[in-house]
Amino acid sequence: MNIRFFPSLQLLATVRIALRFIHEFHFHIVRTDFKGVTGDRERFYNVSIRHKVRLIHLPNLIRKNISGIVRAMATEVAKWYDSHRDLLPPASIDNWKRICWYSHGTIDYFATARAFLQDENLNRRQRFVLSCKYYLEDDVEALWEDMSEDDLMFIKRHTEWTSDLRFWMDALQSNTTLDWTQITHEAETGNYYRTNYPSNFFCGNYLGLPYYFPRLRSVRARFRCLYLATGNYSIRPFYLYLCLAQMQDYEVDGMFKRFPEKHRYQVIESFLYWPLQGIFLSIIERFRHRISNEIYLDLFKFILCERFERELLDHQYVSLVKQLWAPLSEETRSFVRKDRLYPCIAYIINSSDQDPIPNNLIELFKCR
Questions:
Q1: CA-to-CA distance for 85 and 157, rounded, in angstroms?
Q2: Residue range 143-170: average pLDDT?
Q3: What is this structure's pTM?
């Protein structure tokens, strides 16, 4: 796919500022996505973030953007933590020093995994599983030398025994490298060649996706990978972008054509997550001939409910909504107008780009 994400200098600068603010909060709060232990503290922390950011001498629009980026980075932390909670030391440990960030404001999972491999709070069993999940071959082989039979039995009993771990065990026990031809075959068919029972190579195996996706040796295997990942919401938006960027245009077109409606929507929605919103409209244009009225409506609802209502304003969403609406056909506009939330959408379309949008906009229109 020839659409590329190139972060602007302003984005890189605001991320550096946002990172400073997010480190002012305890890790155990941020890992809840600022919802708190009870799950009802999001508004409280939104206000707290705005108060902190208000102290810096920058234009109000930039301060709002920084507050939104802090929230987006907290979501990154929460998703990272959820996908690693069984691989990490106790939750009481402060993990800030080990989390590594890309300059554009998403977590570098691979660099972070390497940082945790140096963590004295991880035992060798945890280190081994973490290395396997990220396909860190040198670390896997070094740790394998120290693994005992008891370690292996413990891992089998207490760790989800996914296909990636089975392939690693086969390679290590036979003193060979990973067989990507065989892995590709299993990814295509869903049958594990040694045991012949139904399996899913990708289930529980998305942490190492940027490593193994380009090593899958067939279009069918890559299609099945993204089909399963988008179908169960397992793939990070930035990882999905990286996968699409490595595919030829004909392969992307074929995939999108074969995807059901749910999967098409999930692909497009992924570009409404930080930091990919800048290429969202390019993605819309790229797939416009395969976007249904229902998908357009769901995108408007997502922006309304997940961005404006939750005050997650990490992008200029008023302008984005207007640009999403402007080229729509009259048929699609008529379809959107029939929805009960259209008055809220119309309010945003008719607002100035700098106008604050009430976070209770939906509630306000319900009362009319």
A1: 17
A2: 83
A3: 0.88
